[in-house]
UniProtKB/TrEMBL annotation:
The keyword Acetylation does not apply. PROSITE patterns: HTH_LUXR_2, RESPONSE_REGULATORY. This is DNA-binding response regulator. InterPro entries: CheY-like_superfamily, Sig_transdc_resp-reg_C-effctor, Sig_transdc_resp-reg_receiver, Tscrpt_reg_LuxR_C, WalR-like. GO terms for molecular function: DNA binding. It comes from the Bacteria. Keywords: DNA-binding, Phosphoprotein. It comes from Aquipuribacter nitratireducens.
Amino acid sequence: MTIRLVLAEDQLMVLGALGTLLGLEPDMTVVGSAPDGEQALRLVLAREPDVLLTDIEMPGMTGLEVAAEVRRRSLPTRVVIVTTFARTGYLRRALHAGAAGYLLKDSPASALADAIRTVHRGGRAVDPELAADAWGEDDPLTDRERQVLRLAGEGLANADIAARLHLSDGTVRNYLSEAMAKLGASNRVAAARTARDRGLL
């Protein structure tokens, strides 16, 4: 049985390399490639691949958002995240979003191909070192705190965040204060930076 793949990666050289490498596997065929998350989701809907291989940080939609949308729509496509982010926060969020695999870009091509086969069979494939580390670190942020902190990290003022998320200014301040306290940060910029460094955004 041939495993049908869609690839999503905003670095075109990496996208091309992945397509070439996986195209050499006798039981795999690439049926579509996308440079951003929105196009990746459209390809998944149109081509119905067995596996979507996606980066995390991409324009439009992140790989985590695409994975969550695939799960929300109950699509049969299995999602494997391939990223440079060796952070347990990203791993936990990927698994929470419904991803079945999480591998680092410096993994050998053979390991990537084996992971795709494992995921296609219904299993889960996670970088073993990250999986071990993930057991020892908790994610302190709520989803709403994460949303507010992400927008604050992008430079939005409290009023703008409130308008974007349909919240009051006071509620936004409360969420930011809670996030700063949980992360041990003295201000919103430091909190956003710490959360991003830990893979919590």
